[in-house]
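User: Can you write out an input/output pair for a complex, sequences first and structure second?

Assistant: Here is one pair. Inputs:
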Amino acid sequence: MKLKLTTLALGALMAAGPAMADLVFPSLSYRTGPYAAGGIPFADGYADYLTLVNERDGGIGGVKTRLVECETGYNTEKGVECYESTKGEGALVYQPLSTGITYQLIPKTAADGIPLHTMGYGRTSAANGNVFGNVFNYPANYWDGASGIITYLLDSNGGDIKGKKIALLFHNSAYGKEPIRTLEELSKKHGFELSTLPVDHPGQEQKSQWLQIRRDRPDYVVMWGWGVMNQVAIQEAANVRFPMENFIGVWWSGAEHDVLSAGAKADGYKAVTFHNVGRDFPVFDDMQKYVVDKGLAAGAGDQIGNVLYNRGMYAAMLAVEAAKTAQEIHGVKDITPQMMRDGMEALEMPEARMSALGMPYFGPSFNVSCENHGGPGLVGITQWNAETKTWSLISDFQKTDTAVIQPLIEADSASYASENNIEPRCK
Amino acid sequence: MFYREAGDFKVSYQDDSQTFPIKFDRYRYYAVLAFAFLVIPFVINDYWANAILLPFLIYSIAAIGLNILVGYCGQVSLGTGGFMAVGAYAVYKLMTAFPEVSMFIHVLLAGGITALVCVAFGLPSLRIKGFYLAVATLAAQFFLVWLFNRVPWFYNYSASGQINAPERDVFGIVITGPNAASWATYFFCLIFLAFCAIVARNLTRGTTGRTWMAIRDMDIAAEIIGVNPLKAKLTAFAVSGFFIGISGALFFAVYLGAVEVGEAFGINKSFLVLFMVIIGGLGSIFGSFAGAAFLVLLPVVLKVIGVDLMGWPTDIVAHFQLVIVGALIVFFLIVEPHGLAQLWRVAKEKLRLWPFPH
């Protein structure tokens, strides 16, 4: 593909590298644009872990991994271009880190038979593997995040949040709108008052929303933000003196770069998460030894140990483990995207396996099955300490309200199935 | 030598007023059409269709539409993104409400609906002119995006507010959805582009186009010689809206397949299409093609050179793209303020005087 393209585009005969039998992991990253602050650490973590696997273990089952990076700028049109240009190289799994691009790739990857892993983003109802055979969103999805926040609030209020006012500040896009339905259901169940405040792309303009928050005085503000919107929101919250401990973000609104700009005022800000934070894990020693010291770190190499770097690393780790599982199932080293899909569906991630990889308690233990592509949905809460400039996990990975989430997933995936004439595939 | 009228004898009025009076031009045009219709569909692959040709065809339609309004009728519009959104949401509602009807009809109807919306927003153009009209159409842009974000009926009450194109066909050939063959989607868009370009070319050569240009050049003078400004301006808005609606419908249904209004049809889209028209050349159909090609192909070419050939980091290439495209825009506007179409025109003039151009 690459060869053909270059010859056609330039009319020049240039070799685009020898065709090696690699395991190709495309990374549709964004290191430019208003969302780059979040895109860079994730892409670095993803790339570094794959480099680590090559350098330390000699690849996956002896086959080297190859990362193909393509810049999307969080833009759906460029995302399509990236998908089309990388899929011909034998891409095993796509992780676009953008809900908008995910919505586009769901039907496309299904047609091309390439799995899509949208870890903690994308279409929530893809957790129903019965309908979405190719899409995985383990270990947790948006609705787990929304429910996890409410569960945490219930716990910290002695199990009763009746009459409390909760405001949802969200990015006015498919991404930001995802939790609304769950929060509405939960507000019926627990009797809290929900108000929603949309913020338009890219999110720099939030004066009116915070004016509204100051007037309504909600007890808690929940944020579904990304990119520059997070920093602005936390700064605005500090400006209107909203108590930071009552301000909780989703996992895309809880990284270092989001809180650092507000300085000491951001102290106490919380975010929900599905993986551990910090660099207190044995895997980082290996990372230092095999990747950083050899000068192979991706990007500027200054992101190691950041929340989103850890998430990118976690995503790569899950992909590598799924590839290993696929190799075991099929007894082939050089797996195809279809085999990769089977590996993802059969993935088991118990605590022992994570410890063996040098990542003890890095994420929740979970198993993927044909019906459940979303994992158990265990989420924890992290809090920011502005003095030490660190995030720390302040609660265990806890169960979310599946009684509310499961029917919503069923309903939404059923409507997708009927729109696209999909038969349930799990027997 | 070969590029001149001499020796090409016209024996009827029809011949005399044809679109391409020079024989060489005419054959070149037939050759391009034949290549586009008969050769490309057989060699096309997914990458070429989805990454290069579809956006080029679709943006060309949008650029022709906007060129009619801005280039021919002189009414500055910054509402293109919003009008494209109207086309996209219209085709989505039609597709989901009447699944058995052919996509051809849906896309044409979506164009018609956009034409009506465009006329409604064009009404103020009778009173406000120039920059003030640009601001009024900017209001249309923001209003329409807000509307499609705000009213759940437009996106069929889906949880995320996204619209997704279901699988639809034309005469049994799948056109939308992930299973559509690349040649089919290409062909579908090409037919619309050819249709729009021919209609636009002929409209601009006839009475309608002349009244538009009269309004553009000096509206008071045009009114004095008997041009009805109401009719001229509103027909320009209607025709322009029709084309932009078609492009929006194709953009959503055939090219992207899933769309989020704020991201896909934001103000950036309006500027992008306006830049295409300005760089390509105001008041020129060829310019619309050239501008669309310039802004669609150049980033892809730069990416292929930078990332795939040179192996540079993707972020550096992305930043270079902005720098190079920006610099080229400035360069072209300084060297040739009338756009790429004027370069083409000058080249043709020189060719006519060849081998002694002056």
